[in-house]
Write a structure and sequence with these properties.
By secondary structure, the protein is an all-beta fold. It has no helices and seven strands.
Length: 132
């Protein structure tokens, strides 16, 4: 939960397995399924993690309301939150205890390294993180 409601402003650490061969990044879109403006496409922020495909990885927590990322993590897109909910990256659940459902859309991708390449989606799944 976000600090606006007494939380710690951190994303959950996630263990991702069966990463496809060829993936070099995991992209996670955090969403509040019950609040339209933040319900899809990473409404609560989109965070990337550099990985090696063909195995598993433990993705560390990231701090909300911050542009600072742990080693190997990067902000793919900032949260759509505005005003007191504006974040340069991840925005932790901020429903204020109204029972909103939060999810993480986890994507294994090949992220292009040069303008001559194209990024490719290799696998995708959605995880329900809980209700806050």
């Amino acid at each position: 939960m976000c600090s606006n409601f007494g939380g710690k402003d951190v994303s959950p650490a996630l263990k991702v397995s069966n990463i496809p061969t060829g993936a070099n990044a995991i992209i996670i879109q955090f969403n509040d399924r019950d609040y339209g403006p933040l319900s899809n496409n990473g409404g609560h922020g989109t965070i990337g993690y550099w990985v090696s495909g063909g195995g598993s990885a433990t993705l560390p927590s990231v701090k909300g309301f911050s542009a600072e990322m742990p080693a190997g993590a990067f902000i793919e897109a900032r949260s759509y939150g505005q005003g007191a909910y504006r974040s340069p990256g991840y925005l932790a659940p901020c429903s204020g205890g109204r029972g909103h459902a939060y999810e993480a859309v986890v994507k294994a991708v090949y992220k292009a390294k040069s303008p001559n390449e194209e990024s490719r989606l290799l696998a995708e799944t959605t995880l329900l993180l809980g209700r806050f």
